[in-house]
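User: I'm putting together a teaching handout on how multi-component assemblies are represented. Below are the sequence lines for each component of a complex, exactly as they appear in our records. Could you produce the 3D structure of the whole assembly as structure tokens, so the students can see both representations side by side? Please keep the chain order the same as the input.
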Amino acid sequence: MAVYTAVDDLALTAFLHDYDIGDLLSAKGIAEGVENTNYVMMTTEGTYILTLYEQRVDAADLPFFLNLMNHCADKGIATPQPLPRKDGTLLGELCGRHAAIVTYLDGMATRKPKPLHCAELGRGLAAFHDATLDFGLRRPNALGVASWGPLFADSRDQADEVVPGLVALVDDELGVLNASWPTDLPQGVIHADLFPDNVFFIGDALSGLIDFYFACNDTLAYDLAICINAWCFEDDLAFNVTKARAMIQGYNAVRPLSAAERDALPLLCRGAALRFCLTRLHDWLRVPEDALVTPKDPRPYYERLRFHRSVSSATEYGL
Amino acid sequence: MAVYTAVDDLALTAFLHDYDIGDLLSAKGIAEGVENTNYVMMTTEGTYILTLYEQRVDAADLPFFLNLMNHCADKGIATPQPLPRKDGTLLGELCGRHAAIVTYLDGMATRKPKPLHCAELGRGLAAFHDATLDFGLRRPNALGVASWGPLFADSRDQADEVVPGLVALVDDELGVLNASWPTDLPQGVIHADLFPDNVFFIGDALSGLIDFYFACNDTLAYDLAICINAWCFEDDLAFNVTKARAMIQGYNAVRPLSAAERDALPLLCRGAALRFCLTRLHDWLRVPEDALVTPKDPRPYYERLRFHRSVSSATEYGL
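Assistant: Of course. Below is the structure of the complete assembly, with chains in the same order as your input.
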């Protein structure tokens, strides 16, 4: 969480000349977003988020992310909507960075999601999935199942120092997942990072989905598995089946899961737990000296993985 | 610039129960304010700044700061106005910190002040001074003339390593200022830190004065001297007399300077340059290892001090 690039009044005023969104009133750098610099910006026309894309985001991916948000917002999904510049494009340049302006979404992330929030999230996720079905651009999942083996190879030597027994578990898990990962389930665009930080609520009602910078084409039900991992475990790592049931039922009410998707859910949950365990392990072992962001502990995802390995059918998730 | 304390939805919703400012819509931590944690907060009633006071601010001073802003805002000065709680007080507690909510001021700090901005600032500063004359609370200036000798004593051993010749210059300057500092000029509450970061403009018009956490009782014209130092030197350290003239004339148009104040201006400017040179030197020599804030270079204020020592009368400031 950091403001990597300082934007001043002169540069921002010039940048806004390319937009039809009124005159600048204020802009404040916010501590939101790990990869990019974000400002809350107010003009005589309204409130917006200004994002400057820092080096860690591949510029070639920006049209996918921005057009996806635009496509979904047009369909009534609560995603930020990029504002078009006068030339019709969605991307400009500010302070040497690619930059975009999107609508400001009211709402706040919730620190302690309740089952009602999980049900809302399930419905919102399914509506997002439905909305992406006719989205024309494609982006492969760079962190999909095929990446997990090579990703672990980079950290394998030190993995047991972080979590004793991790090497044996991951080696076994990679064998199972590489052999059994479903390839014939419905595909579409997934958010792929829909943690509670990235979902806004007003009271109990979902008001915003943000941070689409991991979005990609993949198995739709895998996105639900990511959310089960991210939302349905308590701080003490206990699985909360009431939340999972609420989330899955919410999802199912909007986009009914096929029998194959239901049957695959335990495996998809194992994959999702492994993916976050491995990326966190990778970052945990490579904290830059000048890090502005504290790396996340891989252990809670190791524990989730162990839980999902004990699950024999999707009924254990409340289905 | 940092968000030291993370505020979540549950704590903030509970905090707002003590206010009559509507229901929470959003709150985003902003990278503004060196000493405190600030959020832009939106409710169903409007947009506000939420401030959590961190350890570096003396809690005993908070009533002075908050009541001063309230007093000035009531008189139409463009200061943030603290929102009263239901019990009528201005200060609450949130996440273990003293916390207050103030009105949100539109406008942006300007990176390159023009003479028009300086004239606006002069008028705004004078109006602020006039507004404070009947303010009832008092706070001594902990960084006033009497503090400069002891402050320098703490850094004297290493001062010449930072700026060769600094010890001789400051020793001489302290002798002059301690002997000649005016004590009979008009007194009142001064802002004492009105750098361009702390002044908002919309276009060329002043729209906000913020960050009152150095405000104190002292010589009013000394506040103008601080602003001359902060606003009227270019990046190459050249003195811009056009800006100084605009600022002083703007001030004088609202609160006419007495002959004694005009005559004292060169000495007050020397004091202001010395004060910021010494506090910056102090911080420069004591950067904490985990510093989130880069210390400011004392050298530009050493150069300002040398400039003001060469000034023989206030006419050289454009008067």
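A couple of points students might notice: The radius of gyration of chain B is 20 Å. The interface with chain A takes residues 1-3, 8-10, 12, 23-32, 40, 42, 47, 105-112, 200-203 of chain B (CB under 8 Å).
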